Amino acid sequence: MNASTKPSKVVVIGGGIFGVSTAVHLARLGIRTLLINDGPLANGASGRSLAWLNSARKRSDAYHRLRLAGMDRYRTLAAGHPDAPWLRFDGGLTWDADDADNEIAEVFDYERDLGYHAQWVAPEKIAAVTPGVDASAVTPQGAIFNPGEGWVDLPSLIAMLAEEFRALGGEIVTDVERATVDIEGGRVRGVITADGKRRDADAVLLAAGGDVPAIVAEAGLHIDDATPVALLVRTKPIRHPLKAVLNTPRVAIRRTPAGGFALDSAWSEEEVGVKPDGSYEVRQSTLERLLREASKVLEGNPTLEIEDYRVGPKPIPGDGEPVFGELPSIPGYFVAFSHSGATLGLIAGELLADEIGTGRRHPLLAEFRPERFGASRR
């Protein structure tokens, strides 16, 4: 986009954290913004995310810096909502399996060298650092406690941001069937919804989760896609002392605002079946085993009961790194496609809104442009 031209109207496609965050930041800049979604807000990946706020373990320097900026924005938000049950910074605890692939010592040194706050903890010392963990489940190599990590309940955050967006004059239209980005003369002209209604705009942000690569392909461009299935299980409320996010070999756990636990794991996601009609099949045995694995790592090994579960695509670009910014050769067409939606949600929305509003590319997004896939319009 032309850096000297502020768009008069922007359409955002997608009611997850990237879409809603960008929309509210655009509204704060005084830009008329319409957000459309194919169902209620947070009905996609944002509604089934563990939403662990972190930059733990190994990743590229650029990705680490962006995640740190993302965590910083959440800390600012938490300062303004100190009692919010949907945003907590009570640390994160992680350990690896007791096998040749255990990297705890190496990861600890790596994080310390980066200045990422990390503490190595022997199993018998964990109770003194963070409560609620069954020390007998921790492998002999010990665990890493990252005091600065936390979690967010994305549907709660999205609801709050949407309220502000509407108060600033933003418009939200839900239950809109799949929208097509309208391109004329080599640039974006708006969006056409399934009912044939055209909504003109100077710029469009596509933040439609796992559908982004397929929708971009309609414009003749390519984004590498490695999107798998996500399964998030939520338990009924239970009195328990756990506060930190747990990332263990067999299960990841965090609290929920209602007092239960949110659970996920790699193995349980691999057991989800896909039916011929595209719907998902989750076996009861998978759910029960995930509950048992969670109980094993929790102090007192409590009996856990399922409140509900959510299943669907987990957006992950082919190289694992985020995809943010304007598509090459199509002025006004922006995308947001990334696995780490929770950690990056606020900072990505801020930076994308600034780029859309000013035309200036932000250096924090320099390594995450869609053109890195060699995208060229056919």
TrEMBL record:
Entry GO MF terms: oxidoreductase activity
Keyword Ribosomal protein annotated: no
UniProtKB keywords: Oxidoreductase
Gene Ontology CC terms, in alphabetical order: cytoplasm
Gene3D superfamilies in UniProt: D-Amino Acid Oxidase, subunit A, domain 2 (3.30.9.10), FAD/NAD(P)-binding domain (3.50.50.60)
Residue ranges of domain FAD dependent oxidoreductase in the record: 9-354
A Pfam family assignment: DAO
PANTHER family, sorted: GLYCINE OXIDASE, SARCOSINE DEHYDROGENASE-RELATED
Protein name, as recorded: Glycine/D-amino acid oxidase, deaminating
